Amino acid sequence: MKKIIIEPFKIKSVEPISINTEKERQKIIKDADYNLFLVNSRDVIIDLLTDSGTGAMSSEQWAGIMRGDESYAGSNSFQRFNESVKDIFGFQYVIPTHQGRAAEKILFEVICKKGDIIPSNAHFDTTRANIEFQEAIAKDLIPDRFKDTQSEHPFKGDMDIGKLKNLIDKHLNKIPIIMMTITNNTGGGQPVSMSNIREVSRIAKEHNIPLYIDACRFAENAYFIKQREDGYSDKPIEDIVAEIFSYADGCTMSAKKDGISNIGGFLCTNDEELSNRKKDLLILTEGFPTYGGLAGRDLEAIAIGLREAMDIDYLNYRITSTSYLGRKIHDYGIPILMPPGGHAIYIDAGLFLPHISKEQFPGQALACALYLKGGIRSSEIGSLMFGRNASHELVRLAIPRRTYTQSHIDYVIEIIKEVYDQRENIKGLKIIKEPKFLRHFSAKLTIIE
Ligand SMILES: Cc1ncc(COP(=O)(O)O)c(C=O)c1O
């Protein structure tokens, strides 16, 4: 392999970034009450808030958008979308939705009831919220040894098989479905190994429990399997993806991630009866089953984006550029969740700012410091987001797909190092106003002087 892995694309259309000054950002962040969700994107230099729906579409996708057939029923765009999803994932029934959480809402409304338990390696927060909305319990089964942010393991997203067996032994009748999230977003974008998926599938089948995959970052996960798991280095990504999903009974997907689209999602299943019940719900909230809350042009973009996400040159660049950022700051002594994940780097703000206690939101304080120093927007995943339930104080730097070049990433590295060198000057924050639910989106904070 070549030493320098270049961005495997040329830039055809550009969006300007306005470069503001630190003095201007001081006022902006104060006016936004130290909450980066309340900062306007025009005031952000590098936006690493999320990798969801923020990627750049290809010229092929834009061409597909022009081809979009906006017929209410049975559009050509749906046929192309349906073919692409079936071909890649191998399920019989495909239901389009406006994004991932809509697929989750329909799945759990149909499949689970009050008091049920849904195990997963690690549920994403919308998945958890949709399960809890049905008054069921979302259970994460990550091995305890993976909870140390500094330990390295090739598949830190694996489910703990022992914990799964215990749960089934105790509560078999309460488990309507097992979920697996690939890659594990809340736990650092860490991949799940094929052997773990295969074993979970075997156990699920033995007990007659359907296995569904949260497929958001399926291509990135497949790439990690190719790189790290014995027996896969010579296999094409498409074959690895097909094998992953051959072990499952269905999947939920946010096309805003590895669909490299700005909106969209879908739900797949092999169960005809379930699919019919899901479609009944779909009509109530999303729309007719051949568009499901999406325009025909969105279906086209997804059909093409899903294939582009499996391109090996793209994946080489994608995973290498994320790990480039992670390794460079890690080598400087900055504590990050190791090893670097697929779509994001997670700084351990608890270790970065040991002088700031959990109660003073070290993650949010660090996210604000990165914004102040360099106009970089990141997101806190810690006590502000999860309250007392936070297991870590993390700052996530999520990399949008095909959007930033290496010099943007070098700039991010430079800013993080500068902030690290001056970390003693960073102060904690306190909340002055917060909403009842999901407070991190709109809470107002101030600096503790
Ligand atoms: C693992 C995972 N599952 C589900 C979702 C929800 O998808 P959406 O934002 O499209 O509703 C996300 C979004 O970030 C995610 O990362």
**How many strands appear in the DSSP assignment?**
14
Q: Helix proportion of residues, in percent?
A: 40-55%
Strand portion: 5-15%
Q: What is the rounded distance between the termini?
A: 51 Å
Class based on secondary structure composition and strand pairing: alpha/beta
Weakly predicted, low-confidence segments = none
Shape: globular
Bound molecules: pyridoxal-5'-phosphate
The major pleated sheet works out as: 5 strands, mixed
Written description of the protein model:
- This protein has helices at residues 22-31, 59-67, 76-89, 100-111, 125-133, 161-171, 194-206, 218-228, 237-246, 272-285, 296-308, 312-331, 349-352, 362-374, 383-386, 406-421, and strands spanning 46-47, 93-97, 117-120, 137-140, 178-181, 211-214, 250-254, 265-269, 344-348, 376-377, 379-381, 394-398, 429-433, 444-447.
- Strand 3, helix 5 (125-133) and strand 4 form a beta-alpha-beta unit.
- Helix 3 (76-89) runs parallel beside helix 11 and helix 12 runs parallel beside helix 16 (406-421).
- It is globular.
- The chain has a 5-stranded mixed β-sheet with strand order 2-8-7-6-5, with helices on both faces. It has a 3-stranded antiparallel β-sheet with strand order 9-12-11. The protein has a two-stranded parallel ribbon with strand order 1-10.
- With 449 residues, it is of the alpha/beta class.
- The site of pyridoxal-5'-phosphate has 14 residues, from helix 4 and helix 5.
- Pyridoxal-5'-phosphate binds next to helix 4 and helix 5.
